Amino acid sequence: MSKSAIVGGVLVAALTLTGSAHAGWELGVGGTQKIDGEATWLTTVSYVTSQQRFPWELMAGFIDGRGSIGSGAVPDQYFVGVSKRYNFVDNFYASFGVAFNDRDTDVLSGHVQFQSALGWHYRRVGLSIRHLSNASIEGRNRGETFVLLQVGF
What we know:
Blueprint: H1 3-17, E1 24-32, E2 41-48, E3 56-63, E4 66-69, E5 72-74, E6 77-88, E7 92-101, E8 112-122, E9 125-133, E10 144-152
Antiparallel strand pairs: 1-2, 1-10, 2-3, 3-6, 4-5, 6-7, 7-8, 8-9, 9-10
């Protein structure tokens, strides 16, 4: 299955499965932690459902490759995921969910990943710290930790 088909499928599912009241699309851009001295960037598109306290977040993302990590270069990666958010006091939230990436690398080994986040959002802007890793269920477990700035539209 191609990367475009996976990303397109998640976006179609987001439109089909979610309500429209306060739901919204968000574009994100961010930077990752340094691993073996090299950081990288990522972009995301996500859809947050309309539930006030416990909305779902459906996300598709692209992580730019790194030149040299561990045993060699780390190629670009795509991932899709679904998380459940818990909105608590003063526009802060926490979330946890599952994600799937398109390839096995020195950073994200295996295809099944877990995504956790702590974030803040106000109107159309959000900022979060996120971690994507396999929780040691398959191979190495370096994972990606990143800061993500999201803008809603």
